[in-house]
Write a structure and sequence with these properties.
Elements lengths: L3 H8 L1 E4 L5 H20 L2 E3 L4 E3 L8 E2 L11 H7 L1 H11 L3 E11 L6 E5 L11 H10 L4 E7 L3 E6 L10 H9 L9 E5 L4 E4 L5 E4 L7 E10 L17 H5 L6 H12 L1
Antiparallel strand pairs: 1-10, 2-3, 4-5, 5-12, 6-11, 7-10, 7-12, 8-9, 8-11
Amino acid sequence: MIDYARLYREDGYFVVDDAVDRSMLAALRKALGRVADKVRSGVVVEHDDRIETGGAGVEPHIVSGLQAPEYGEPVFSDYLVCEPLQRYVRLIVGERQRLGWVVGFASTRIAGYHCPWHRDTGGKDRGLEGEAEMEVLRTHRRNMVKFHLALERDPCLWIVPGSHARLRTREELDAIGSGELVDLANAVQIDLAPGQTVFWDSNTIHRGLAGEGLPERWNLTGSLVRHEDDREELDRRFAWRLADYVREGLPPASLPLYDNWRWSVNG
């Protein structure tokens, strides 16, 4: 039996084939297509702190706020609490959880996409070395798991295994500092087939890169958080979730996660 929790601790990631049922995979792909159309036409518009109907359409790349009632797609909330996904999430963050987020990559113009090498630390490790860098890795997002579900083939994520739990090398520091399209010797490409999911520690050094011949990118990127007796600073990108009507539109199984998140940001 594969010890996925050990792989996550040591390598910072693992890939599985069965974290979503095939019927839900098809429903999610169709729903994200409808959401992208609503953004493109301006039927639904996302702002920094709210989601509303009516406005100027834009060509989507990443669509946030997928759980918002304005989109009318409860399948995204159902996905976060479905048993196939939760079977792996619980290995990392346990039974008691609160909402992280779920966004959709819905890009029909992915050619040339390149997100440079980085860690998802918000710059907290910038300029740090030694014990100071390790302290950031021990504390930043220590209670969160992140995952990508490929709705279509998705070869864009590259990870440096084990880099979530060690100091950066000089090669890695140079690559992160330059922001340029360079390869790292120990990096691996996470080439996901439709329906595959990668669970990964976002403190790993990683990048996004669309290879030649990739016409579109369709995936869901989400996170769930271990709920502890701590407070979470409100990210303004999720301020729309504070609206009273949001809770009313969520499926019953996700309400405990929503309530735990609401408690964490409101106290």
